[in-house]
Structures are given as structure tokens and as C-alpha cells.
Amino acid sequence: MHIVRNASFVLALGLAFSGAMAGEITDSTVVSTGAVNTSAGFLAKARQNIGVAEQDGKITGTGVIVNGAVNTSAGFLSEATQNVGRATQSGKISNSMILGQGLNNTAAGFLSKATQEVGFAKDNGVVENSLVEANGASNIAAGFLSEARQKIGGAEGNGKLTHSYVIANGSVNTAGGFLSKADQSIGVAK
Fold first, then answer.
1. C-alpha–C-alpha distance, residues 80 and 113, integer Å
2. Which run of H or E residues covers position 133?
3. Which of 4, 66, 106, 111 is least enclosed, having the fewest CB within 10 Å?
4. What is the dihedral of CA 86, 137, 147, 124, to 10 degrees?
5. What is the pLDDT of residues 7-60, one digit of tens each?
6. DSSP 3-state assignment of 165?
7. How far apart are CA 142 and CA 44, in angstroms?
8. Could you count the other beta carbons within 10 Å of the beta carbon of residue 15?
């Protein structure tokens, strides 16, 4: 009897850990105002994730509201990433609301790179029955080998965007520098 109880405990603990490894945000509210993330230096790298589910990522029945989030990387090998309401690795956003206002993501430096994703599902991504709104979102890469990407309200990797609203007023994506490249995707399924 004692062995059976211990085996049951180990099995339950194993199931709890396996469930915890899968990224899932369900029936929740994530609110962030004025979040600032900065990395400055020679090998600078900055990341900011708000309301993000990864590795079998699912965002379901959830509201993610972000105002004035700033993510900056400045330095020789800079790289900046800002993710708001994103689901990756078979990502799915369903019956949810992702609102981002005044989001700023900047990489400035010789090998700069900036990436901003708002309400985006990747790797067999699905966005369904959801509202994704990003107003005044800016993504800027400035430097010799600059590259900037901005993805708002979409799905990628056999992606599906169904029964959803995507609103992106005043969204700016800029790359400035010798080998600049800018890529902006709003309400896309790839």
C-alpha cells in the first residue's frame, strides 16, 4: 500500500512538471504599464516578454493589456526583442484580446537587430476569435547592419487567422543603416 501511494505521488508530480513545461496562459489577465527593459554595452542584448506562451504555447480566454512598454538595446552587437501576447511552437491564440499602446522597441549599434511581435502565433500558428490591437507601436533598428521586423496580429508556419480583428494604427517599422532591411507584417497568415 505504501509503495502504491509513493508511486501515485511520483506519477502526479511527474504529470505536474510535464504540464508546467508547456507554455499556456488560460482565462487570465495580464496588465503592464510603463515596463522598461534596457541593455547597453559592447555585446548588448535585450528581451522583453509580456503575456507570452512558448513551447506548445497557448493563450486562451485571456486579456493582455500593455501600455508604454519600452525595450532598448544599444551597443556594438545589439539585438532587441519585444513580444506582447505571443504564442510559439504550435502557437495558438484563441478567444483572447491583445492590446498594445505606445510600444517601443529599439536596437542601435553596429550589428543592430530589432524584432517586435504583438498578438502573433508561430509554428503552425493559429489566431482565432480574437482581437489584436497595437496602436503607436514602433520598431526601430539603426546601425551598419540594421534589420527590423514587426509582426502584429498574425500567424506563421502554416498559419491561420480566422474570425479575428487586427487593428494597427500608427505602427512604425524602420531600419536605418548601410545594409538596412525592414519587414512589417500586419494581419497576415503565412
1. 6
2. strand 131-135
3. 4
4. 20
5. 333 334 343 444 445 799 999 999 999 999 999 999 999 999 999 999 999 999
6. strand
7. 14
8. 10
